[in-house]
Amino acid sequence: MDGETREGALDAARLGAELGERATLVQFSSAFCQPCRATRRTLAEVARVVDGVAHVELDAEAHLALVRELGISRTPTVLVLDAAGRIVRRAAGQPRTVDVVAALGQAM
């Protein structure tokens, strides 16, 4: 997973879901995005097997203010948050499982 790190942090109130104890995978999706479905499966599986990791999927259209604030320009976009909700990695496009696991290693 490539990309720049953004300053600031996201919390449960802004995401509408609880953060993971150790890390959170935030996925921005859109309704008719085929790669978003595959990304959902990948991130859900990683969150299922890695203790303390949560997967939160947000509809980009329903969260336009957050999309603009974070500079999300395409779906899927995945943000990896550390335990405090700080963005430590971000990537656009469908990620590979190995890249998600490696990014989590940086977050935890």
Automatic annotation (TrEMBL):
The record's section on CDD domains has: TRX_family
- Where in this chain does the record put each Thioredoxin domain? 21-94
Task: Write down a Pfam family by its short name.
Answer: Thioredoxin
Against Gene3D superfamilies, the record matches this protein to:
Glutaredoxin
Q: What is the protein named?
A: Thioredoxin family protein
**Organism this protein belongs to:** Streptomyces pulveraceus
Query: From which lineage does this chain's organism come?
Result: Bacteria, Bacillati, Actinomycetota, Actinomycetes, Kitasatosporales
